[in-house]
């Protein structure tokens, strides 16, 4: 027992069954340690009974700063699980390393914060809707320690002033909702004096039996967080009827033990928040945001009575630049570990960090021990999947909501991979379409239908050419008419004659071009049904041509003979009528052929 | 200058008229395709991407099963979560087309690395197929009339409310893909008849197979096509093309359809399919006679031969049918089939069919609602079809007329009539507009030529002489054209309005306007189902009226006694009987069914009218149909259905009444009304002092729409 010659000078234990954390018990201990032995000591042992150790979620020791001082960032003292010899097996030990060894007579003050989950037991275990919920807390009034304790006191702070019963020891005082035991002086080591406090607590006993957080990083500027909760009301089981009428009328009396909403403090600039479950969107939620935080208030689909479960998913996007940093060539994500939900105990927390495809060299830095492994996830447009870092931790309390870091390498060029894939996908699709349109993929090249189709296509091409020629003829006619109009305006006969000459040449050429096409059509069997129409068209056009020429000559003649405009018009009036009719016929024919 | 310059540059890119037309056509089709899709997304925008109504939940659940367990497990799936304690052989009692389609789309998307959720696929399946239907409608219209009619048909069907009602996003039901399959099969068949090509016949057989796999409405195809063939035979339009098309469709289609377990051997065994077989044999006889006639040159001899053969054939057919019917090999027509032919049949014989609102005869208003101007265009289209009679137009006329009759018999069959109505109306629109524009264009041409030729009096007189034939032709055509466009634009606005107001609500989530004009959402169904899912034992059995069965299994993940697959009338009647008995009698039934929870839907607080109290008479009727202990008059007062003080005593004390109104008498629902005022029916309830002995309230949703009761274990005996 040589090394246990410390004694605690002063100890105040404050147990806060605080309103915020009803299923949690925070115990805060101020310890002042004095070395009474000759050797220098740098380790202090903390002992917890098995039952508490089982429920302990979080343990932190910090050097005591004293009140009123400017709070520097407190550096936690390293705490490790210890397994010293010659100690009762029913106790679990943790050792706190002091910053410097304590010589004899030296003293050092530090705070220990331990958080226990599931330490409050509902008694009775089943209550009806109208009952209030009573819970029992058990602890020792004397500080259980391997060392002798000089002075110690214990105060239990309860959320409500209604206390059903509590263990009365000597020196017990009660102030409103606070019970004070002690101070006790000069206790021997391992002194133990059980106390039990039975009190009312109607605060939400929200326990997430499982929470899966998925943090997906997109280098296009978004960190998408998706959290899947499986929630249970961990308090007294509800029994008997649930009456909506009573609950509606007096929710604070009939349904005092139920909780109706949860609050999540999301990081600032969170966007695209959603709240849903397996069967769809849940419409009862409110989002308030300012520059410092985004507060999301969610109501489960139904009020949560004792033992009732629910499961839901919330998701939100965060701006990438707030969480992703770069240091010496590596990128790292710096984001909080646990749920943004306040007042929530998590039995099993799984955090999955999905890194972009092509990340490598992944490492994680967290301030507490977590289980970790890697997976891959195949998401949109992935070829070999995105690397996923999975972190698992059981018994998580809000104190664990600290930042952790994931380091990885990622080349900026990999970002272009997916857009390029999409672009090339569409490109090949269109190329395939073009190839399909132009390629001849019929199986038998000699079958009758195939040949007929090919011939028909040729015929169509020829008819198209014929049409073109005819329409060019028609434009020539229009030009001639235009020249006539010019003539009537300017009286320039020479220009008109020149136009006539040009038109003559052009028309001759065109009729020359037309000839082989017509002979082709006459020879082709598949053109048989169109041929008469085409021939009619050509004939009409020729007639039209002649008429136009005659008219032209007449008018020019008239001008040469210096006849009056009215005279000329009278002369050509009859021709004009015929011309109009012919032109109409030709147009109709063209349209008809077009429709074949 | 610059203008001519640019036109010079653009010259090589200038398209020919044909190409321009093709471009415009393709563009219009693409737009219609997109329009058909997005007009169905109202519900997603208003609410969320969710499955609607009742049946789709079952389809969704089975699709989920296919994607998770694979096709063979799905085929062999025995679902013990429904029809407790009987269970249901799912693989053999459903049309798997929809689920397999959705699962394939899902697989394809995942293969292309789009990590979508199966729910999104299911929600968007119906709009996607609606888009495809517009394409089919285009090709169909092109086949029976011309490409203009095809385009109009595509546009009409894209927004037609009759079709939208069953194909909005989230309405993940068989009809969503079946209408596509139906129209596609018809199109391929008409194509096969027009071309006489074996390839098209084969394609139509596969189309038919898909239709059979997707929806029970395939019976319509297998009866309409033989009827059509018969009509062609009678009208002397028999041809080799028809022979090839029909035989190919019938034989291959039948063989393929037998691969669907739910259909099995019905093609050769059920009375509903016998017409097709009869026509098949008739065609063979016809062909044979044709051949004999070809071989025999003697007319008298042929007449003799004809008489003998026909007599023999008819006799053999009649005997075969008679023997088949008598021996029970050929099953008689089912009640559903009868109720189609005779609208009053279901009312008298099968209350369970009559109880479904979508099986009611159609009111005129719903025709107007679903078809709008198509109702007037339809006869006009028929006129045009008769004017240009061909094999294809005869088909569409027959399809239109028969489906219109069925649409009149049952509300839900408006859906089947919609494609026909759209196609025929499209013919009317297209033909009218075409005629009018031809008129307009010819006129303008003359006018143009006239105007370019100056102001000669002779020309003017000639023009006048042309005009004189029909003085106001041009103006009239213009007016008619504008009228047509006005009507069509009215149609478009009507369709959009109907889609957004009437057909885009998921019916699982109810929305109402609050006092301040804000939108209030009643999400009670999901609240209750999720409560069941989370807070009841995994093997809990839930009894409710069959309407909610699919939803409870899909969303609540609990076993139900009866569900929307109303295959066992007795089981449903037992539930109906339990609901309409006194509590202690009901408790016996509930115990015998091993029920743990009873779920009722109650709208008295919110004024939601399609609740269980309003459906209660059907429970009594269906229950009474099997168990004569339940008599409908016991629940009525002078033939009147009441729930207030003047209600029948049995009504006031039956289980359904008690469960619905338990502790409702203490509730103030409306200002200025006594407590216990039922807002759905607008009366104060008659029994305010309800005590439950064997059940206890387990959960009631926030607006009381769903109430769940727990069945207490029996009391201890001494």
UniProtKB/TrEMBL annotation, chain B:
Broad class of enzyme this protein falls into: transferase
Domain of life: Eukaryota
Domain Oligosaccharyl transferase STT3 N-terminal: 24-424
EC number: 2.4.99.18
Pathway(s): Protein modification; protein glycosylation
Keywords: Glycosyltransferase, Magnesium, Manganese, Membrane, Metal-binding, Transferase, Transmembrane, Transmembrane helix
Pfam families: STT3, STT3-PglB_core
Localisation per UniProt entry: Endomembrane system
Membrane topology of the entry: Multi-pass membrane protein
Named cofactor requirement(s): Mn(2+); Mg(2+)
Chief location: membrane
STT3/PglB/AglB core domain sequence ranges: 542-598
Bilayer-spanning residue ranges: 22-42, 89-109, 121-141, 147-165, 177-202, 208-231, 243-262, 274-293, 305-330, 367-385, 392-408
Catalytic activity line of the entry: a di-trans,poly-cis-dolichyl diphosphooligosaccharide + L-asparaginyl-[protein] = N(4)-(oligosaccharide-(1->4)-N-acetyl-beta-D-glucosaminyl-(1->4)-N-acetyl-beta-D-glucosaminyl)-L-asparaginyl-[protein] + a di-trans,poly-cis-dolichyl diphosphate + H(+)
Keyword flag Magnesium: yes
Similarity comment: family membership: Belongs to the STT3 family.
Name used for this protein in its record: dolichyl-diphosphooligosaccharide--protein glycotransferase
